[in-house]
Design brief:
The structure holds two protein chains of two kinds. By secondary structure, chain A is an alpha/beta fold. Chain A has ten helices and 17 strands. In chain A, the strands form three sheets. In chain A, strands 1, 2, 6, 7, 8, 9, 16 and 17 form an eight-stranded mixed sheet that branches. In chain A, strands 10, 12, 13, 14 and 15 form a five-stranded antiparallel sheet that branches. In chain A, a hairpin with a 2-residue loop joins β8 and β9. In chain A, α1 packs parallel to α6 and α1 packs across α9. By secondary structure, chain B is of the alpha/beta class. Chain B is 29% helix and 20% strand. In chain B, strands 1, 2, 3, 4, 5, 6 and 19 form a seven-stranded mixed sheet that branches. Classes of the chains: A alpha/beta, B alpha/beta. Chains A and B meet through α4, α6, β10, β14 and α8 of A and α12, α14, β22 and α16 of B.
């Protein structure tokens, strides 16, 4: 098998993290090639709630700085909108959402409690069952499907390349350094590689002796027909995450997930379940006056988590790896910037990522998934 | 090993309750094959639930769901009691099923079907999701027979998005099943057996057929049937295609047709235009179950991949009648074959299925494509394809962003179907995401097939190569108040988390490893969402 011309940097995985990283690299003039086993953004990157409100992340400030500029920077619409309301139907939820707002404030982002009167005005579909809520003024939402395509097209506009339907079968190393990636068409050479392959990252990295502990799971969402537009569309709470889209549809998820074993080409299927009924129950609780609004679709996506639920953004030799541990879409403008910095400068220029290094899992029990109850009970996909 | 926590409490494992209703055999669809299957299974000693959505609520009918009714219903459809009587009157077999001990669920929608398999082990038992106008519930089955029939194929032309344009199945339902058709003069598109039988049905109902319009140069259906139609003085105009329908507030008043080659147009007075070009096997539930599909143009398009006459690769799921593929197989015999297999499986002595029926001479894709290309030739890019989302033919080929986003940027305007095709084979779901075609509340019933045809023609690939835009539960658009799990058990409620329930995930970065971390973990641990 011969080594063909690849690129200076090959990005494995055309999800939102890989695409953003490639776009940032292309902005710096790097010759970059993204390989994806299917179509860009086809997995969790295009199937999530579209939230962009991640106060817990060291990338939060950069996330919030970039989102309002993304349409212009990319040249394509992401449907980004600012602001978020979180509504509670129980005292337990209200306590939790107050804590969330306080934590936002402590992390430099204005947030405040809103009363029932304000909620009635801002969310006409809600009813008296809403006990209260919080308004996060710096937070937002975007359309995941439009955003992933925007990254892909913007990358191409800068001269970056994307090869879809080209799964990476393994990383090829020589003398302790990755020199290329193997695909069905042969080996494509590169100076360095970015592994952003979601559930497949662990399989690919294991081949070069890097142990990335992740477990994959299926999560589900529902969407309604268009509802009357709310001034702030990112209204969630009541155990759900989600948003009103610019078209007016209510797209929401939450609740139990199913742990899965996902192969190198997977997931082969993404089954739904009767959970649509439980999601609908909560959505109805949030917008009690919209009982006649029809649920028109549901879907599932497969995402990976690390043992502590925090990202791994790290570089070992010429391998840069990124898993956002199931919270990647909203942070993608910033995470791509961080990966670009790691690849080019070995260090993130705008945030401390020390605690997101892979080394924190040294000594992890080999049975960690079983010990957490994160094993799959289903046939692999 | 003693302190190993085996099950993640926030996962779906063990969370679903048992279904509130159970039957040995659940049959979905009370057409000829479904009723035959239900009666045979009940006579064989099984407990049988036969589910049929008719009479469909008037509000769903106005969404062209499940059939393409085209707004040509009389007010009679608002009266559910009268509609149920009408259905019993129109189908004597339902009474026979009732007498055989079949439990009938009429006016009940089957919106989903779920069983364990790759990627899912959460189901306590295989079950279908049902709903009436008030609530939804689950019914467990040991054997599931899908006899869901077919849907209407619909294609676009100028003025098709107004009341009076409808499908052959929709018209059949309004005339024969509901006795609630509001039209009086019907122009029929197509000349296959479907179109010819539709014409005879209209005449028999005492209504008028304006003409049959056939895009090809020959009549497509049975010669004897065609002679019978002509015997009623009805013209079958071959080599012609519809250009436009015009009308007023109540919809269609006339239609204009032109020769496909060239020549003078003709205008027909009509209040209804019935698209009888083709039907589409109703595979929604099979697709939701994760069953493998094949593209069989001789069977009408995407159909369940079968391992025999009625068996599929899915355990305990059988398909009978038109939903298995359009063919000339006797529908009742199909249903009875499915019942025999189901009974044998219930008895623990599985039967070998018969061989699948031989391929028919139907070439649905070629025929649909002939219609679509003629319609594209005589109509322009401004014609709406997706009525719910107002996506035009031109929007599709330009991969144009939806109008609510305003005009596309300069770079976005340069993107089109060719730039997507350059990156790999076209995928209808990708167009759906970018243009919103097929995203609306009719659940793509009116545009799924024609979007695939337009993508195929615009990029010069056979339509069989355009992947199916997948069906998703709920396969009927159901109000939130109906679909909601009002019966959710406390166990589901008390273990519900908005995401994975991993407390450490949400500790602010700056507090990780500090004394404040414990405070966060305490706030974040245990469900906050009861």
């Amino acid at each position: 098998m011969s080594t063909q011309k690849g690129a200076t940097v090959i990005v494995v995985g055309g999800g939102v993290s890989g695409l953003s990283a490639a776009w940032w690299l292309a902005r710096s003039g790097v010759d970059v090639l993204v390989l994806d086993k299917g179509i860009v953004g086809w997995e969790a990157s295009g199937r999530n709630g579209g939230g962009a409100s991640h106060f817990q992340s060291p990338l939060f400030a950069e996330e919030q700085r970039l989102w309002p500029m993304m349409d212009e920077m990319l040249g394509y619409s992401t449907e980004y909108q600012r602001g978020k309301l979180v509504l509670a139907t129980t005292e337990g939820q209200l306590k939790h959402y107050r804590y969330m707002a306080e934590t936002f404030c402590e992390n430099g982002s204005p947030a405040h409690e809103i009363d029932q009167q304000e909620i009635r005005e801002r969310v006409p579909m809600s009813d008296d069952n809403i006990l209260g809520g919080v308004h996060l003024t710096i937070a937002g939402q975007a359309n995941p499907q439009r955003t992933v395509q925007a990254y892909a097209w913007a990358l191409q506009d800068l001269g970056g390349r994307i090869q879809q339907h080209t799964a990476v079968l393994r990383l090829v190393s020589e003398g302790g350094k990755v020199i290329g990636v193997e695909t069905k068409d042969g080996i494509l050479g590169c100076d360095s590689v970015v592994v952003a392959a979601g559930p497949q990252s662990a399989i690919l990295l294991a081949g070069v002796g890097i142990d990335l502990p992740i477990a994959s799971a299926r999560a589900e969402m529902i969407v309604t027909e268009p509802a009357p537009m709310m001034a702030i569309g990112a209204v969630d709470g009541n155990g759900l995450y989600g948003r009103q889209t610019k078209r007016g549809n209510l797209a929401y998820g939450g609740g139990p997930h199913e742990w899965l074993d996902v192969g190198l080409m997977g997931p082969s299927v993404r089954p739904g379940s009767p959970l649509v009924r439980n999601l609908t129950k909560r959505l109805l609780g949030l917008f009690s006056k919209a009982g006649n609004l029809r649920v028109i679709r549901s879907w599932a996506g497969v995402i990976e988590n690390t043992p502590d639920g925090r990202p791994v953004i790290d570089r070992i030799g010429n391998v840069t790896m990124i898993t956002m541990s199931s919270v990647g879409f909203g942070l993608s403008p910033a995470s791509g910037h961080a990966v670009r910095d790691l690849v080019m400068d070995g260090k993130c220029s705008f945030a401390d990522l020390e605690l997101l290094k892979l080394g924190r899992f040294d000594g992890l029990s080999p049975n960690w998934r079983a010990e957490k109850g994160w094993l799959s009970h289903a046939e692999p996909v | 090993m003693t302190d190993v926590k085996l099950v993640d409490r926030y996962s779906i494992t063990n969370r679903f309750p048992s279904a509130s209703q159970k039957a040995d055999v659940v049959v979905i669809g009370a057409g000829p094959s479904g009723v035959a299957a239900a009666i045979a299974a009940a006579k064989g000693g099984a407990s049988v639930l036969l589910v049929d959505e008719n009479p469909v609520s008037a509000s769903l009918m106005s969404l062209d769901t499940p059939l393409y009714f085209g707004g040509r219903m009389t007010r009679a459809v608002d009266n559910k009691a009268r509609m149920i009587e009408q259905i019993f009157a129109s189908d004597r077999l339902l009474e026979a099923a009732f007498e055989a001990g079949v439990e009938l669920a009429l006016g009940v929608y089957a919106w989903g079907a779920f069983q364990n398999g790759p990627g899912i082990a959460a189901m306590p038992e295989a079950a279908v999701g049902l709903a009436d106008e008030e609530r939804s519930w689950m019914v467990a089955y040991r054997q599931l027979i899908l006899a869901t029939g077919s849907r209407d194929l619909s294609l676009s032309f100028q003025g098709w998005d107004q009341p009076g344009v409808m499908g052959a199945n929709g018209l059949h339902a309004l005339i024969k099943r509901y006795d609630a058709f509001a039209g009086s003069e019907v122009l029929i598109l197509g000349s296959g057996d479907l179109a010819l039988n539709t014409a005879l049905m209209v005449v028999e109902a005492g209504l008028k057929v304006a003409a049959l319009i056939e895009v090809r140069n020959q009549v497509q259906g049975d010669a004897a049937l065609a002679a019978k139609v002509r015997g009623h003085g009805i013209e079958i105009l071959t080599g012609h295609v519809i250009v436009s329908a015009s009308g007023g507030a109540d919809g269609v008043e006339c239609a204009t047709v032109v020769p496909v080659a060239a020549g003078d147009s003709r205008t027909f007075t009509c209040d209804t235009i019935c698209q009888a070009i083709g039907l589409v096997p109703a595979i929604e539930l099979f697709n939701v179950l994760g069953g493998k599909l094949s593209v069989r143009t001789d069977l009408g398009g995407h159909v369940p991949q079968r391992t025999g006459l009625v068996s599929t690769g899915l355990a305990n799921v059988l398909v009978a009648g038109d939903c298995a593929g359009l063919s000339n197989v006797d529908a009742a015999a199909h249903g009875e074959a499915a019942a025999a297999l189901a009974l044998a499986a219930l008895a623990g002595q599985p039967l070998a299925d018969e061989a699948p029926a031989a391929a028919t001479s139907l070439d649905a894709h070629a025929y649909h494509a002939d219609w679509m290309s003629a319609l594209m030739k005589v109509g322009d890019a401004s014609i709406v394809v997706c009525q719910c989302e107002e996506v035009t033919r031109g929007d599709l080929t330009a991969v144009r962003q939806p109008r609510y986003l305003g005009p596309p940027s300069e770079v976005a305007a340069k993107r089109d179907i060719k730039s997507l095709a350059a990156d790999g084979p076209l995928n209808q779901d990708q167009f759906k995401r970018l243009t919103r075609a097929c995203m609306g509340q009719c659940q793509a019933r009116r545009c799924r097939e024609q979007v695939a045809l337009i993508l195929a023609q615009s990029s010069n690939v056979p339509v069989a190569e355009v992947p199916l835009a997948g069906y998703r539960a709920p396969v009927r658009p159901l109000p939130m108040s109906v679909l909601a799990a009002h019966d959710e058990p406390y166990d589901m409620t008390s273990n519900w988390d908005v995401w994975f329930g991993i407390a450490s995930q949400w500790v602010p970065y700056n507090d990780i490893g500090t004394e404040r971390e414990a405070m966060h973990l305490e706030m974040l641990t245990d469900s906050q969402h009861i």
